[in-house]
């Protein structure tokens, strides 16, 4: 459970759960490599990490729906470090239900980010994970990825993408069997944002059964 000096890559680190991971891992001494689509979000969370007593993180622009971006990000990480201890696959694209037809690009992006991009990102940095003495791959799925889950307010493409992402994590678990690699899957419900250092994080500790989950719940579960 000692995380000091562990090299941790977090996708979707610019906001929400990814930011909560970054701000929670920073004080534990992790060497963070933060990835997200928007560079301005990465710059802001990087400053917050330092203010929370963490080391200056390395930041990389990553669009999981774009194969070229995935490849470039993996190459950049390989140039930064000889190994990766923990990969947190948190990056994804949201697409809520709509009464009008979805744009083709939106459908492709939400599916590609969750499945194609996530798989290729894992595959591309696999040599770095294998170089670690205790490599973990954590995938943040969704309650939508569970069998017979209620559709609620999500779109069918998002629902299907998350089901595929669950299968991806399960497939990795089977593929890793017998090796030092470990595939961990968390399927959160709808979450309220909470960030370390903010009142929302403190308030989340008082949550009782039946209340909406928060990003703090997921961080602590991981």
TrEMBL record:
Gene3D superfamilies: NAD(P)-binding Rossmann-like Domain. Pfam families: adh_short (PF00106). InterPro entries: NAD(P)-bd_dom_sf, SDR_fam. Coiled coil: none annotated. Signal peptide: none annotated. Keywords: Oxidoreductase. Belongs to the short-chain dehydrogenases/reductases (SDR) family. This is SDR family oxidoreductase.
